[in-house]
TrEMBL record:
PROSITE patterns: PROKAR_LIPOPROTEIN. It is found in: Periplasm. This is Nitrate ABC transporter. GO terms for cellular component: periplasmic space. Keywords: Signal. Belongs to the bacterial solute-binding protein SsuA/TauA family. Pfam families: NMT1_2. It comes from the Bacteria. Its main location: periplasm. It comes from Methylomonas lenta. The keyword Plastid does not apply.
Length: 317
């Protein structure tokens, strides 16, 4: 082997031994205004696509399936879905509290159903999720009905308007922006999440093996998007309303039905032990256990992790 070939061989070995950059963190979201700060961060180029991929899926169910199958590293989910995933033994971390619904989730019906007492014998469409089951339970209790006094139809939120329009369902359990679309079509609300304080909460979960240093970038992206939305809501709404069948003004109205949680508040809620978030979640956990949707109490110490939030805020965990 000549000296030149030797040098080439050594160079190839050195290049091969260098660490390649990690692939982008993949986070899944479904159509829900509470997750739109991440969409805004992506659309306004506030994130580096080499570090973070924000993947839009059709439903919460798709997000949980992709997370379970390892196709996602992280996902924005309702707390009930996150708890159910952990209950099955999946190793997850809740790394941020994103928002709380205060009217943005709702039960909608046509004019022939004027009150909750008219629900008997009706067909109710809902997603096959823990949140759907939770809201159905609240709806039936409010109307003094049992589960066997109504029919249920499991459909994804994207076709809620269709099943109402074609008569496949009389009532839907849905959320924004579908809620506003249906209100615009003449349907009306029978019950919404403002009557269920603290029970409809969204969180950000990551696979437990993802290092806090990588997750911190995701949380910074969320915070940048949230700050952009709050600093210029009109401009942001004009961008985010595209594809929702809502005007800019109607989109802004949807935001009145939820409360966004800042990264600083999220870090505080998850700090412990005991974390304040645990106390706030007790009524939801009790209900999920009563409905048979949770087999055991959550292991909050293993589940809650605010280290990435602290890193994103420039503080040491």
């Amino acid at each position: 082997m000549t000296a030149r070939h030797m040098l080439m061989f050594v160079w190839i070995l050195l290049v091969g031994c260098q660490d390649s950059p990690p692939p982008p963190l993949r986070v899944g979201i479904n159509p829900w205004v509470g997750y739109d700060p991440l969409v805004l961060a992506r659309e306004q180029a506030l994130v580096d696509a080499k570090q973070l991929q924000i993947i839009e899926l059709h439903s919460n169910t798709e997000s949980t399936r992709a997370l379970r199958n390892g196709l996602l590293d992280a996902a924005a989910l309702t707390l009930d879905e996150a708890l159910r995933l952990a209950d099955t033994g999946m190793a997850l971390k809740i790394v941020a509290v994103l928002d709380a619904s205060n009217g943005a989730d709702a039960v909608l019906a046509g004019p022939d159903i004027a009150s909750l007492t008219d629900l008997k014998g009706k067909r109710i469409a809902l997603e096959k999720t823990a949140l759907g089951a939770l809201m159905l339970d609240r709806l039936l209790k409010a109307g003094g009905l049992n589960h066997d006094q109504v029919e249920t139809l499991h459909v994804e939120a994207a076709i809620h308007a269709d099943v109402l329009a074609n008569g496949s369902a009389d009532v839907v359990i849905t959320f924004e922006p579908m809620k506003s679309r249906l209100l615009n079509l003449g349907f009306h609300s029978l019950l919404d999440s403002s009557q269920m304080p603290g029970e409809v909460v969204d969180v950000l979960v990551v696979q437990a093996n993802i290092a806090p240093q990588r997750t911190a970038y995701l949380l910074q992206a969320w915070e940048h998007g949230l700050q952009a939305l709050q600093a210029n809501p009109e401009r942001s709404a004009a961008l985010l309303a595209v594809g929702t069948d809502l005007s800019r003004e109607e989109y802004l109205d949807t935001l009145k039905g939820l409360y966004f949680v800042s990264l600083q508040d999220s870090a505080r809620l998850l700090a412990g032990p005991p974390a304040p978030f645990i106390h706030d979640s007790v009524p939801l956990v009790d209900t999920l256990q009563q409905l048979g949707l949770l087999q055991k109490a959550p292991d909050w110490n293993a589940l809650l992790d605010n280290r990435a939030a602290l890193l994103a805020l420039g503080r040491q965990p």
